[in-house]
Amino acid sequence: YGLYDYLRNSIQQLELPQRKAALIVPAFETLHYRLTFPKSKAELLSMLDMGSLYTFRYHVWPKGHAPTDYAKWRTATVPYRVSWQPDFEPYVVVRRDCPRYDQRFVGFGWNKVSHIMELDAQEYELLVLPNAFMIHMPHAPSFDISKFRLSAGYRGCLQTLREEFHQDLSRRYGAAALKYLTAERS
């Protein structure tokens, strides 16, 4: 409730049109198909503490959202900066002229990860909004995630595309892009 207005105000207050920043909207999830959506951060924290909400994908892919620093978010009252980490794939609000998603990554796998890497390579600030949140609702697995899980060929193609993406980052950003390749190999 009120996310749109909050985002508009944050964009103005943080002067987003004049700076390279990605506003991170912390993501949570429920395992229930029905949910009374929290009307405030306080309500969300209560639901989190009661176990009816969880940090997004905590049980299957914690690396994807861990850099959001949910412990800090609980008490944050102002936006705070986080650093890129491997496999980080938050939901973000960015300027219209930001880098586009890489079209190689369609279907399941690496679309948000590669986008955040590109933003980081271009030195975008990653700012977590203290009063924004979204909740992922359960749904049936997509056709593409099923293909990813069942097909070694699909996974192999995705790995090839990831390697090409790293090479392209290295060509565009030089030594600054080495951290992505190093992180991938670690």
TrEMBL record:
The subcellular location is:
Membrane
Q: Does the keyword Transmembrane apply?
A: yes
Native organism is: Pycnonotus jocosus (Red-whiskered bulbul)
Keywords linked to the UniProt accession:
Glycoprotein, Glycosyltransferase, Membrane, Metal-binding, Signal-anchor, Transferase, Transmembrane, Transmembrane helix
Molecular function in Gene Ontology: glucuronosyltransferase activity; metal ion binding; xylosyltransferase activity
Whether Glycosyltransferase counts among this entry's keywords is yes
Q: What is this protein called?
A: LARG2 glucuronyltransferase
| Gene Ontology CC: one annotated term | Golgi apparatus
